[in-house]
Amino acid sequence: MPRPEARREYALSRILQSWWRFAGTLIVSLVLTAFGISDLYPRGSGPRALLLFAIALIWLARAALIRSSTSWSLTSERLIERRGILATRRRELELADIRSVEVDRRFLQRLIGLGNVVVASAASTDFMIRLEWISDPEAVADTVRQARLKRLA
User: Fold this and answer.
1) Hey, what long-range contacts does 94-103 have (CB within 8 A, 24 or more apart)?
2) What's the pLDDT score for residue 114?
3) pLDDT (mean) for 49-60
4) Does residue 2 surpass a pLDDT of 80?
5) What is the pLDDT of residues 13-37, one digit of tens each?
6) Which of 41, 53, 77, 100 could pair covalently with 9 via S-S, beta carbons 3.0-4.6 A apart?
């Protein structure tokens, strides 16, 4: 077995929340934009139409910001969770310390191919990383399991 300092850590995947999680926000932005367009055309350019466009743009920017504020990275050695934009929190779980990998899919998530993956640590009973609203959770769970087995081998 190679010495620990001879091992090199490499990235396996980076996981982000699906845009489907923000479907409500996207629909609200689309409705606001439609109202802005309908207000703009019959009467000409009005401040209310510009206000509606600005609110729709702010809602879209908010969704993009929230989506990018949470990410998970799977490497050959660890699962890393990053949350936050200005104040950030980083949690790491060694692959060798994984106790269980569970897939949780609610009805709506199953309809659109999403789910949650919960990775629990053997080091502590209450330490876990929850990957929420991700695409193809079964494949992500299998990737974590395979990386764990390779790490233990």
Assistant:
1) 94/123, 95/144, 95/147, 95/148, 95/151, 95/152, 96/148, 96/151, 96/152, 97/121, 97/122, 97/123, 98/122, 98/144, 98/148, 101/141, 101/144, 101/145, 101/148, 102/141, 103/137, 103/138, 103/141
2) 97
3) 93
4) no
5) 999 999 999 999 999 999 999 998 8
6) 77
Rg (CA), the chain: 21
Residue 34: what residue type?
A
What residue spans define the domains of the chain? 9-16+71-152, 22-65
- Reported pTM: 0.85
Non-local (6+) Cβ contacts of 47 within 8 A are none
**Residue 112: which H helix or E strand, with range?**
helix 107-112
Alpha carbon of residue 142 to chain centroid: 17
- Which CATH number fits the domain 9-16+71-152, given the four candidates 3.40.50.300, 1.10.1740.10, 2.30.29.30, 2.40.50.840? 2.30.29.30
